[in-house]
Amino acid sequence: MSRERPLILLTNDDGYLARGLNALKEALLELGDILVIAPDRPRSSISNAVTLHKPLRVELIHLSDACAVYSCNGTPADCVALGIRAICDRMPDLVISGINDGENVGDDIIYSGTVAAAVEGALHGVTSFAISIASKSSQPHYETACEVAVRLSQYLLNEPLQDRAVLNVNVPDVPISEVKGVAITSRGKKRYVGRIEMRYDPQGRPYYWRGSERAVIEDEEGSDVTALMQGYVSITPLQADNTAFHLLPFLKERLKSLLT
Length: 260
Ligand code: MN
What we know:
The chain has a single domain (7-188, 222-255), classed as Survival protein SurE-like phosphatase/nucleotidase (Stationary-phase Survival Protein Sure Homolog, Chain: A, 3-Layer(aba) Sandwich), CATH 3.40.1210.10. The protein contains seven helices and 13 strands. It has helices spanning 19-28, 76-87, 108-111, 113-123, 142-158, 224-229, 248-255; strands spanning 7-11, 33-39, 58-63, 67-72, 94-101, 128-134, 165-172, 182-184, 189-193, 197-200, 206-209, 214-218, 233-239. The radius of gyration is 20 Å and the shape is globular. The termini are far apart. Bound molecules: manganese (II) ion. The site of manganese (II) ion has 6 residues, from strand 5.
């Protein structure tokens, strides 16, 4: 791999075979050298989990002048940490996670392995973003998300993010000509409600199956949820420090004498 070209580490949580990741890999080749290190199977909704109690294995799938593709038996966060601290021969200039099949807005952000991989990049001090498409069909408009990712990467390679910030990008599933524009947003309200479904196994024992809960969204000006619904590309800055600063004065006042 050439020393002059930027090095981009690409991962996802849908696995190294995912169409979104492979579309993005092809699109990014115009920008620099690409190191893909992605889970060997789908690992969606695994958040920031890391693997501490079993060996991590990495398999080289493809190697060319400008691109290496590895699959890894770890989580998305493992992939980024291994990529940066074991596989790359220099620090990547950018970590990108995606293109995820399905939006990551509101409470999705907490569970998302896609977003977590980008956060892992930021924890290592590398400018990082996650990109997801609000896919509605079996043939999502990955080309729209690729265009957004390439333009954003060009910008970030010149203007890196400071202070371990991360960008969470969500793209509507439409041709690029139908995108209304870019909205800089905050995390909106999308919550999962309702009972978790119970069924019975062949032995008559109950089991539960997550994932069928209903999503409730609130339309709020300036939120990722609303921007996406209105046909905009949503870009939300996130930070790894999740201290609830607004509660500090209140809690200091109320809880300082808790043990006296
Ligand atoms: Mn996913």
